[in-house]
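Notebook B, p. 112. Complex prediction, attempt 2.
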Amino acid sequence: MPRRQQQLESFRSMTPSQFFYEYREVAGFGSPSRALYQTVRELVENALDATDVHGILPDIYIAIEREPENPNYYRVTVEDNGIGIQPQHVPYAFGQVLYSSKYRLRQARGRFGLGAKMAILYGQIRTGKPVEVYTSPQGSNKIYFFRIKIDIQRNRPIVLTRAEFPNPSGWHGTRVSVVVEGDWPRARSRIHTYIQRTAIAAPYANIVFRDPDNRIVIYRRRITKLPPIPREVKPHPHGVDIELLKQLIAKTNAKTLLEFMVEAFQGVGKKTAEAFLEYAKLDKNLDPRTLDDKKLEYLARKLREYPKFRAPSADALSPFGPEIIEAGLRAILEPEFVTAVTRRPKAYEGHPFIVEVGIAYGGKIPPMNEPMLLRYANKIPLLYDEKADVAWKVVDPRNFDWKAYLVNFPAPIAVLTHIASTKVPYKGVGKESVADVPEIENELRNALREAARRLRDYLLKKKREEEAKKRIITFMKYTPEVASSLATILKDMGVREEDVRKMLLNIMKKKLGIEDDKFHKLIQGLEVSIEE
Amino acid sequence: MAEYIDQVDREARKRALKVFQETFKMLYDQIARGEPPYMMLPKRTLANTIYDEKRKLLLLGPEKLKRSFLDLNESKKFMQTLLMAKIIYEALERDEYPTIRDLYYRGKHTIIYREPGGRRHEENTWDEQRESDAVIRDIEVLTGLLREEMLILSKEKGKVVGNMRIRSGGDVIDLSKMGHGAYAIEPTPDLIEFVDVDAEYVLVVEKDAVFQQLHRIGFWRRHKAILITSAGQPDRATRRFVRRLSEELKLPVYILTDADPYGWYIYSVFKIGSITLSYESERLATPSARFIGVSMTDIFGYGKKKPYLSEKERRNYIIKAKDADIKRAYELMNYKWFQTKKWQIEIKIFLDKKSKLEIEALTSKGLKFLADKYLPEKIETGDWIE
């Protein structure tokens, strides 16, 4: 960890405060309502990354409170039961922009730890309040408390308060609290939606949310299965650029290009490395540190071009898996039918990705003119710019033949899409919509078809059952008149109404081929009476 | 009450009750064998109506309809048929004479059912009399009993006067002594006995008003006719009564209607039967009935035949045909039984002139003209269509 910290020194040339001022719209802090939403989002995503990624079933508490001194100031507090932060890292983790524990190549919700610090910075600039952090690393017998501000000019943490408390209950995790300027009335519905969507994707979490109106929403844990823990992988040669090459070279101990290739990239052995260097007409004994920018550009280009590298590894990916998607959709939307598909890993431009699609149908979902779309990228719910997203392009009734799957709009249908990748191709820096990468689009469509086929099977079966039910109701409601008529005309032969009814019921059962218990279930509560 | 009931009626009831028991025993046997109950009914549709050219009758074709209780589309009809059978059966047992309207009301129940989900629905056994009437016809073909044989009454519509005496319900009625009124043809004309008759032919007039006028000037007395009106579309009793006059008394039957497609169809109903009641044609139709007029050739002339109306009278009396009339004319043109030379000429003139005429036009020209010139002359010269 400390070594990596040094490597990041090269980023210091960026002045975080200037960067933030100039790009806060792009980072999601353009207006008080958006900023409040973004603050919640960044803190919740950090909380989840501190738990499920490390095999811990999350307990997340979220609170937004109005600050008494100014009605436009809101204190956002998020607490998790995650791995916690070692006390010596806390000032940097919260007080220095571009310091991150997540700067590695594996799927995580955030990457550079920028988001949470944006929130802290934004809060500090507008309200002058420091961030407050309680944390206890796993196994620690102490709870640490910090109040930290950021020295914006020097990008350094200023620790205002540091305290330690005993930890008799063995609690571990982190509780972060920032005060930001916000607009709750405008952000209310987005934030509630965001938390609901987060809960859908994390049915293995307990999530409690208290909002400024003192409304408390509780999403209880539905399953105890966690998604697979992503492993760290080396970069794939198709996914490199000059900057990444520079970083990899700075880090390596390799003396030759051949050694460097084998050491730095995934899926590259000696043989592959030699074949590639021959293809690129590069000397395998060259010291990688001697490469200038021009040579680096050439190497990066050739790496991307070479067709014979092994496909990117999906070990770094962490899809939800069908079980989690189905549990989440079932718990929150309460549909009558749910199914989910996790596709096999694919790659675009050297980046592995997995696409997942879930469908929820009927039940408490209201009929709508188009599908309700729940988009996720690396487990983060995406709420803005829906219509610009590749997922919308795929599920849009103008592009997808829903009728072929017996879905006729208005229909009560929700579609969940998830793109898990070491690099999600977002449109723009706002991370709100995914670009139309053909490989991803195709996978989304394949996954949607697979899920929709299951929905169609279900709807067909349901239709047949409804027809059987309709038949039974029809026969049952006419049986009394038929039986009474035969009993009247044939009374001299001792024909009794009750017997005819029973016989007709048996004939009906036989004809419809329904087993006894199912038949009884179908007719249970069916009452017929006649008013003359 | 029993002693006032006609022995004839009592016999009819006994027979009907027995037929009902036999017919519905078959349904019960199916059920007792564990089979889904069904009944086979002749299809009462135009497609299954056959014109028997030899006997000149509209008959029910061979196509059958399987009405099964467990067929979702037939289930309600099946129930309705049994419900109607039960009501008729009960009326027979109780010595009642229900009308088809009575039967409609007696069988109109509300079925209330609660779905397993708890939703309550209401459904009537039938909503309109059209539905219950259709089921009565189904029972007639199913049992082979006509509604008269089941002692079901309908409104009396047809009237008759003439030099003739009949016995009905034990009374002898002299049809020449009805004053300005007339004898209403009873719904069970088969229970009438002809005592004696002195007449040379039967004249059936579509319009009640024309019937009254001819009656008042003593047309039937002067021309030795039995005068009948159907007052529009003929009911079954009137048709059966005319048939009996033709069959049993061998009297020629002449039919006088408006000169339009509806009048022509009334004539054809008397002569060969109707599509809805084709199963009864053998009993109701009068294949020898003649269309005396008013014909298109009477109005416009044809070939050597001179018209009865002058140019000026035509201008005054003729009515322009409506779209519905023309449509109906094209339908009739395609019916097999209108595909004779004389009828095709009639229809062609009508379509050509697009004109129709009511019988009243001839009375306007002069009641005496109608009674003493037009009708006798046409009968005498054989100027009719068969």
